[in-house]
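Sanity check. The docking grid for iron/sulfur cluster depends on where the pocket ends up, so I'm generating a full predicted complex first rather than guessing from homology. Inputs follow.
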Amino acid sequence: MYGLGEEWNPRKARDFSLGDYMGGEPRWCPGCGDHGVLATFQRVIRDSGLSPEKVVVVSGIGCSSRFPHYMKTYGFHSLHGRALPVACGIKSRRPDLDVFVITGDGDNCAIGTGHWIHALRYNMNLTILMLDNNIYGLTKAQTSPTTRRTAKSNTHPGGSFFVSLNPITVMLGITNRSFIAQSVDWHPSHLYETIRAAHKHKGASFVRILQRCPHFTPHAFDEVLKDPANLVLLDHPNGVKMPENQLKHFKNVLDHDPSDLPAARMMADKPHPFHVGVFFKDENAERYDLVTRQGRGMTPREKVEAVEKTLDLFTI
Ligand code: SF4
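Predicted complex below; grid placement will be based on this.
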């Protein structure tokens, strides 16, 4: 990483290498999809020219939530399900930072559900990557909200009872959401373009990434891994537009304008085939981080006076 040498100047344009973002040696299992997501993520922020000291990676608890340890940026490995309130707090006070949230299906769609829904509704400028391996991996294979019906786990050895939660339909169903996308860990070029589009979007961008867990759910994604015809690429200049030379990796390509909410809902509702790309995007959704910026330029004296003025409203 750039040190504080004589040539260091925060306002000078700098070039970064991948090494500038690489933190500790990842301790995920061999073959875990998290490795690929980490490598792609580091490429995106390198190519976007983000200064490491201006990036914060916030996570909750789970295998994927070890992400901040493997980044040489600022990071916050928070509590189970609580990555989003931490990230919103950081963005509220430091809108100049690029804030990324890394969460998992157990972390985000169970204990973190309330924060998930309201963070998307508040639409602060965050990039949220949810790595979905269909299981609680860190705590050794318990059923998560996205575990498929009949899939066996340590909590449901006879098979999961319920139809799994669909994170995309949940997100499309709430108000003021502004960017909903889906990708997979084994298509680095698509993942790269999707994370890049999510980061460029001004608002809360939510990307669900199917993430292979060879240790506990080795067959969870067989349907799309073994037969690429079951995967449909949503290609559109307003969402993710894949480079021409990458289209050959997709057997099915659909022109989907992400401003078309009814079409997005219809696709998300169907379990087959599996769509990757940007389902929905609204650049005009209201943003709470623009509201919470107010008062940032005030002096400490002015802040105290403002608080006192507000408290005076409650004087009896
Ligand atoms: Fe990855 Fe699964 Fe191992 Fe966790 S248990 S590190 S998700 S392969």
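Relevant for the grid: Residues 28-29, 32, 34, 63, 133, 137, 213-216 surround iron/sulfur cluster (CB under 6 Å).
Also worth noting: The chain has one domain: 13-312.
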